[in-house]
Amino acid sequence: MCSCCPRTRNSTVTRIIYASILLLGTIVACIMLSPGVDEQLKRIPGFCEDGAGSSIPGLQADVDCQMFVGYKAVYRICFGMSMWFLVFAVLMINIKNSRDPRATIHNGFWFFKCAALVAITTGAFYIPDGPFTYTWFVVGCVGAFCFILIQLVLLVDFAHSWNESWVDKMETGNSRCWYAALLAVTILNYILSCIAVVLFFVFYTKPDGCFLNKFFISFNMLFCIVVSVVSVLHKVQVHYFSVDHSVLLSIFQQIAAPSPEPLEIENQTAVVIIGTEEPVLTSPYLQWWDGQSIVGLAIFVLCILYSSIRTSSTTQVNKLTMASKDSAILAEDGSSPDLSTGPRRVEDNERDMVQYSYSFFHCMLFLASLYIMMTLTNWYSPDADYTITSKWPAVWVKISSCWLYLALYTWTLVAPLIFTNRDFS
């Protein structure tokens, strides 16, 4: 059976498994949000037969079936995952190579580690409500913001890497073809960005109100225009032939920003305005599943997989993306030990030096778990009567991340002009 598997490296397999565990936890959290969970619980003999509001036989009174549905279940599942990754982040500090005994724990013992994850997650459901929900909401906001900062660096690196790759092909291959492709992508980015801005004004503003929404959209649009002008300056073009992906990427960052505001849904339409009334859920498991949340979650999964298995070209970003410059996950030089003599298909390529920081890798997955929690719950914190209470800090987390991304991208363009004695290649 092992001979049928492709040859790969231990560092790659380990990261893929951890990313798959995170994805599996996300799927379980999504299942807990589905409206049919309450009906399925009733079918279990002697367990929640009266629905989500009933108590569980044999357990204390403050632990009832409401813990297994809705936002409360997502908070506890993500609490278990995040604590599991946090323990490993602390345990794996300063591992230099795979000969360290702790590296064996990191790369093996999967049954026991998964059993510990299940135990921690199960124990989380015994935590009484009280201050847990609000406290974990605050922790989730902080952790999700930190994860967004890491994503911003990855997005900037992705934009520059895409530019460099296509420009190199334009200079070495069919220049007309690749120049046309660069121009087409640039025009497409601006068209999509303009369409998004128009839709923002249509669905998130009203002629006689929504002044804060108008400010957010207008300021972000002006910021994008400034970045576009900077990117086409002659002195900047000497260092970068820039295709402005930053505009479209920042527009997507803004898509999610207006929605967490304290909202009022008027006439059951798509028009969202700032108000004082709070929407009330009829049950703890009927959630808001819109296109924005699904797209955001899908892009998150792609980002975490990308950051787990990719190889970067700069030392600074290598430290962030857990990849080494000289040791790619997909080896380009093809140098590896001959494994054809045995069934072993996984190569230990970390006996001399680890290919990524184990501790930082788990720290990022810890933050990713918190980001998942905030994304699935739409950055809301439910109280005891299922009223969804929106928090202004969540609004500013998303808005500030959008502006920070544009500022960071602008800095990567102008930094070579300011610090001429440094190598930014």
Instruction: Outline the low-pLDDT stretches.
Output: 56-62, 254-260, 262-288, 311-317, 321-341, 384-390
Mind summarizing the main beta sheet?
A: 2 strands, parallel
User: What coarse outline follows from CA principal-axis ratios?
Assistant: globular
Helices, by number, come to 14
Beta percentage is under 5%
Gap between N and C termini: 45 Å
Proportion of residues in helical segments: 55-70%
Q: Calculate Rg over CA atoms.
A: 24 Å
Task: Give the rounded overall mean pLDDT.
Answer: 70
Category from helices, strands and their pairing = mainly alpha
Strand order of the largest sheet: 1-4
Membrane topology: Multi-pass membrane protein
Protein name: Serine incorporator 3
Subcellular location: Membrane
Keywords: Membrane, Transmembrane, Transmembrane helix
Describe this structure in words.
The chain crosses the membrane at residues 16-37, 73-95, 107-127, 133-156, 177-203, 215-233, 291-309, 353-374, 394-419. The chain is globular. The protein contains 14 helices and six strands. The protein is mostly helical and 425 residues long. The strands form three sheets. It has a two-stranded parallel sheet with strand order 1-4. It starts with 7 loop residues before the first strand and ends in a 7-residue tail after the last helix.
